[in-house]
Design goal:
alpha+beta; 3 helices
Length: 92
C-alpha cells in the first residue's frame, strides 16, 4: 500500500518507521540534531515548497533511512496510512 506525502511524492507504507509533527518534535535538541545530521548526509527529501507540517522517516533499499518533509499534517498522514487512502486531497 502507498501513502501520498504531497506534490508527486508517494511512499510504501511498509517502509515507514515514524510520522512526526514538525512543530512539536523539533522542540527537542535530539530531534533537531537528528534532522540536521540527516540533512548533512543528504537523506532529507523536501516534498513541497509549502510550509512543512510533518516529517516521515522511512527505511530505504540501502538499509538506511530517508526523511521526507511534508506539508501535510501528521494526523492526516496517520489517518491515510491506517485506512489506505493515498489519493491527493486538497486542503489537508
Amino acid at each position: 500500500m502507498y501513502l501520498h506525502l504531497g506534490q508527486d511524492t508517494v511512499i510504501t507504507i511498509e517502509n515507514i518507521l515514524g510520522i512526526f509533527d514538525l512543530e512539536t518534535t523539533t522542540v527537542s535538541k535530539a530531534t533537531r540534531d537528528y534532522l540536521s545530521k540527516a540533512t548533512k548526509d543528504r537523506r532529507v527529501v523536501t516534498v513541497s515548497s509549502e510550509l512543512p507540517k510533518s516529517f516521515v522517516v522511512c527505511r530505504n533499499e540501502n538499509g538506511g533511512t530517508t526523511v521526507y518533509v511534508s506539508p501535510i499534517s501528521p494526523s492526516t498522514l496517520l489517518k491515510r496510512s491506517r485506512t489506505g487512502i493515498s489519493s491527493i486531497r486538497r486542503g489537508t
